[in-house]
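Budget justification note: compute hours in this period were largely spent on complex prediction jobs such as the one shown. Inputs:
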Amino acid sequence: GAGVSQTPSNKVTEKGKYVELRCDPISGHTALYWYRQSLGQGPEFLIYFQGTGAADDSGLPNDRFFAVRPEGSVSTLKIQRTERGDSAVYLCASSLGGQGSDTQYFGPGTRLTVL
Amino acid sequence: GQNIDQPTEMTATEGAIVQINCTYQTSGFNGLFWYQQHAGEAPTFLSYNVLDGLEEKGRFSSFLSRSKGYSYLLLKELQMKDSASYLCAVRRGNKLVFGAGTILRVKS
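Corresponding output:
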């Protein structure tokens, strides 16, 4: 398909472990976003990439969270020393250029459960 | 918080019209989006408003008043498949700031 894809769809891990979540954006989209959604809430912004660089990482909750996009396409969100409070659905979105009416298209998300 | 407020839940009857309101803080406003999200699925784009007025797209319309910090999503001829959460999101800079969503239940 031509949409945003995310892997894995579900991830269960133990407290203290390291996890990586992957996002494959729509081909040709230069802007990529990570959001986190807890039950009963709207998505909460984490980080925005324009090309390979993180243009805005103001939403990352602390230094256990890190994201990369080395070739300007696929992105990986990395969480170190996971905590139970990190349990949520992690959504990735991409858009053409990141400006104005530019629409963000979301992937299906990765449901992370930290035991 | 970012103060985007929308009702938590609404119920409407199949075939009817429903209006979902959203209010937001006007500082840093750069456009307003509505998304639909079915349980366990990704948000899907419905509409975008940046100027005052009504944007119509089939059964769905969205209205914006920038001076009042107010928007609504209007759904006409409701169908059972419209049962979902509807998310209001304000663009601030490059990011979207979302409300908590309104769960719409359509009953027959």
